[in-house]
Amino acid sequence: KDIAANICKELGKNYTAKIIGFTISIKKWRKPRH
Fold first, then answer.
1. Is 23 within the bounds of a domain?
2. What is the pLDDT of residue 31?
3. Domain contains 19
4. Considering its fold, how many domains does the chain have in total?
5. Is residue 7 a part of any domain in this protein?
6. What whole-number distance in Å separates Cα of residue 11 and Cα of residue 34?
7. Is there a domain that residue 34 lies in?
8. CA-closest candidate to residue 18, choices 5, 3, 10, 4
9. What does the buried/exposed string (b/e) look like for 10-24 if buried means 16 or more CB atoms within 10 Å of the residue's CB?
10. How many whole angstroms separate alpha carbon 6 and alpha carbon 10?
11. What's the CA gap between 19 and 3, in Å, rounded?
12. Half-sphere exposure of 31 (CA within 13 A, CB side)
């Protein structure tokens, strides 16, 4: 039970980090390049 909860927490962190990184990369990509 505890191990599964820890795995879920880690997966949640990785998922959130991926979404944040993805959002940042899209914002950078959409910025007009000088």
1. yes
2. 76
3. yes
4. 1
5. yes
6. 37
7. no
8. 10
9. eeeeeeeeeeeeeee
10. 6
11. 24
12. 7
Give pTM, 2 decimals. 0.50
Long-range CB contacts (< 8 A, 24+ apart) of 2-6?
Answer: none
**CA Rg value for the chain:** 15
Q: What range does the domain containing 15 cover?
A: 1-29
Of 28, 6, 9, which Cα lies nearest the Cα of 17?
9
Complete DSSP assignment for 1-34: -HHHHHHHHHHHHHHHHHHHHHHHHHHHHHSPP-
| Predicted pLDDT of residue 34 | 63
1-34 pLDDT per residue, tens: 798 899 889 998 999 999 999 999 988 888 776 6
